[in-house]
Amino acid sequence: MQKFMDLGWWTVPLKGSLKRDENGKKNAPHFSAGWKAAALETKNVTSSTLGGVMTGPESGIVAVDCDNENTYNLFKALDPDYPFVFVSKGKGYPSGTFIYSYEESLDRNFSINDSGIALDFFSTKGFVYLPTKANKTKEFMPEVPKLKEMPSSVKLLLLQFAKKTTPKTAASTDSSNRGTLATLVRQFTDNDGKFIAGLFRAITPVDFRSEEQYVKSGYLHPKNIPDGRGSEYLSKVSAILGADRSIDTQLYSDCMHCINDLWPSPMDETKMELTVTSPMLEGKASVNGEVIWTYDPDWEKDNVSLATKAGQVLETGYDSLNRSYYAVNQLEQTFTAIDSEGEFFSHLKACIRGLPKKATLIESMPLIQVESRPQDEFGFTDGGIMKVLNTFVQSPELKILNDPDSYTEFYKRPESTIAYFEGLIPEDAMRNYFLGFMKRKFTTFEYSPVVLYLLGVPGSGKDTFVNILETMIHGIHRPKIKQFLEKHNKWVVGSYIVQLDEYGDKMSRSIAEEVLGIIKSISGSAKIDVRVMNRDAYLYRHHITIVVTANRNRFILEFNDRRFAIAETPNKLATMKWVVKIGGLTKAIHAIQNESKDFAYYLATEVKSLTADEYQNPPSNDNKKRIIAVSLGAQDRILFLIVNQMWDELIDLSYEYGGNIDKEIENRFLTEASIEALYAGLTEGVGDIARLNKQARLLGIKLGRQGDINYYDVFNKDN
Predict the structure, then answer these.
(1) What residues pair up with 121 in beta bridges, in sequence order?
(2) In a domain, 184, yes or no
């Protein structure tokens, strides 16, 4: 090692051995704690049989370590006769490290492994092993060649590589949507680096989110990083952690080492320190001249994080607009919102170990702005004046729908789900409308006045349709009638799909009219007044789509009301051929559930999205009146046919259940007696004609009397 010391280099004596195993992997010697700082503080004067050199301005050198044959041959071609190369041995292919004079424009260490190039560049505070006799990984260098400056072609290429490997900013790695990570990272490091899916959901760089495990599970374990991209992954995770204002130097270092240890074959610790962690901690990792490292020692002033009895972390905040207290588990992507201060504290008391006093907790709790942003990650972000909490949780299916390319290689056509929709809504036009509506809804989340109405036989699979919607957005509101009718309607906040299930079996006529009025109020405008007890109402811009599922209809719908997209569901799911073939209803439902991601891809690539006009107006349906009429109860059905002057349908009904209606329609004189006979036939004699007449008057149907005959005044000169 002495001949290298004679060059004025700052060397590092080492103990132990340095050799390769049968697979070509390097077995590194022992490095003492703080070795780098010591090596740069005091110049070594002790020679040893094994050692290395610190690159950078101290030694006046840089090193270009070519890790594969392609890279080595490239630099050899750029400088073919240059002898100052530490040639590798034991790898099974040509490789080595080119040594050049220090270059100020290349003062940052970096690694690249892309498009056939595998290279580590060592500059300021870098380190490479010397080719001594004890170093069995390098060809012995008996004499030291003359050092020179790198050729312009080499310099230009390295500058391009350096630019390409510049660590990304927080924004470019999506870390701006993560809030502070310290609580999650500390859980990870305190548990000796045991893998936590929630953390790796948050820190997986965007360039790795197309990997199979992330696409299917929403997180990526380092062991599943593609071969050759480990250095890239660590560099980008380093940038994400470094850009987080809650991560200090110790937590950053501990986390990076724990992540590295999750690999079956971790990166050499020395190499990681030189190329990844040291540039970050020393403030040399930057983008456009701006240093990435952003730790703020006062970050906790804006955060109240509490450890739960289950070993997780809750972050708290108060939303002054909604007057609600929030406890957020970013690891599990869940939250609890409670309006009452006392109830909120009681909730925390049951969950938290060592809870602060209530007054202290409330006083220190930050103000937050709660929003629902389908395009962003769940959790806290820095919103300027106050933190923003995004309560929307993106499902894997929603991500595939909006980025189908990430799932292309895993796609299998969802035959069961396609067959299900064909059986659920046999009419092609309306089925295609429902599918196209789903696609536009979940890719734009725009407001639409359309109400999706599935109406048909019990067991047709209407709830299965709603469950498919729920896989997309992880949460559908299903209010009971009482809640839907209540004046206080805070439940609309953050809702995207609201299912009204089987209201027809549970409503009186007056209640049905009230429910219909609220449906029209919500669907009729993108803005709605939100009313909360003991406070003034406030205007809220909603994105709600109401889905009504019913076996029979209790609403008197106007045929010209275009907002209702009514799909008839005439088939029982259990008796469909494809269901019988697959082995029954339970297996059919499981098949649909297992195809959820494939169906999302199918929606994205094979279903035509609705235009803006189509999204606002469902197609006209010649069967709409009939569908509505058939689903109504006896009294409502008769009145609906009369109000809409559906005389042929009324005559057909009388042929089946009684009455002399055909002759009366022909004579344009509809009597109470004929309607009473029809009503009795429909209700097996229990129908009350007086109640029917009362409802008829409310609907604007006039009753007259001619001699001894009561009649309905429903004909005029035009009909």
Answers:
(1) 64, 110
(2) yes
302 pLDDT more than 80: no
Per the CB < 8 A criterion, the answer to whether 492 and 530 are in contact is: yes
Residue 135 DSSP symbol: B
pLDDT of residue 623: 67
Residue written as tokens 């750029």?
78
pLDDT band of 150, cuts 50, 70, 90: very high
Indicate the pLDDT class of residue 534, thresholds 50, 70 and 90: confident
Query: Are the C-beta atoms of residues 185 and 247 closer than 8 Å to each other?
Result: yes
- Over 60: is that where the pLDDT of 652 sits? yes
Pairing of strands 545-550, 497-501: parallel
**Does position 679 have pLDDT exceeding 80, yes or no?**
yes
Nearest Cα neighbor of 49 from 132, 141, 131 is 132
Helix (H, G, I), strand (E, B) or coil at 178: coil
CB 268 within 8 A of CB 316: no
Q: How far apart are CA 58 and CA 102, in angstroms?
A: 9
Give the whole-angstrom CA distance, residue 51 versus residue 694.
102
C-alpha span between 383 and 125 (Å, rounded):
37
Segment of 99-108, 212-221, 582-591 carrying the highest mean pLDDT? 582-591
Whether residues 153 and 51 fall in one domain:
yes
Q: Going by C-beta distance under 8 Å and a sequence separation of 6 or more, which residues neighbour residue 198?
A: 184, 219, 330, 331, 332, 333
Interior/surface letters 302-330, b for 16+ CB within 10 angstroms, e for the rest: bbbbbbeeeebbbbbbbbeebebbbbbbb
Residue 170 pLDDT grade (very low, low, confident, very high; cuts 50, 70, 90): very low
Asked if residue 575 and residue 450 are part of one domain, the reply reads yes
Dihedral in degrees, nearest 10, Cα atoms 356, 357, 358, 363: -70
Q: Is 196 left (phi over 0), alpha (psi -120 to 50) or beta?
A: beta
Number of domains observed in the structure of the chain? 5
Beta-strand relationship, 85-87 and 96-101: antiparallel
Q: Are 606 and 627 in contact (CB under 8 A)?
A: no
Q: Domain range holding 641?
A: 633-713
The pLDDT mean for the chain works out to 87
Each residue of 444-488: pLDDT tens digit?
A: 999 999 999 999 999 999 999 999 999 998 778 999 988 999 988
Distance CA 505, CA 134 (A): 87
Between 306 and 176, the more confident residue is 306
Query: Does residue 425 come out as left (phi exceeding 0), alpha (psi in the -120 to 50 range) or beta?
Result: beta
Of the residues 359, 385, 411, the one at which a domain ends:
385
Q: Which residues pair with 398 in a beta bridge?
A: none
203 neighbors 225 (Cβ within 8 angstroms): no
- In this prediction, residue 33 carries a pLDDT of 55
Confidence of residue 504 (pLDDT cuts 50, 70, 90): low
* Pairwise CA distance, residues 388 & 713, whole Å: 61
Determine the Cα–Cα distance for residues 548 and 455; give it in Å rounded to an integer: 8
Q: DSSP string covering 322-370, please?
A: TTEEEEEETTTTEEEEES-HHHHHHHHHHHBSSPPPHHHHHHHPPBEEE
Q: What is the pLDDT of residue 172?
A: 39
For 45-107, give the DSSP string: ----SSEEEE-BTTTTEEEEEE-SHHHHHHHHHHSTT---EEEB-SSSS--EEEEEE--TT--
Q: Across residues 652-661, what is the average pLDDT?
A: 87
Query: In the prediction, which pLDDT does 563 show?
Result: 86
CB 67 within 8 A of CB 118: yes
User: Same domain, yes or no, for 614 and 668?
Assistant: no
Question: Looking at 164, 187, 204, which one is the last position of a domain?
Answer: 164
pLDDT (0 to 100) of residue 165: 64
CA dist., res. 191 & res. 331, Å (int): 15
> Which has the closest alpha carbon to 89: 55, 34, 133?
133
154 pLDDT higher than 70:
yes
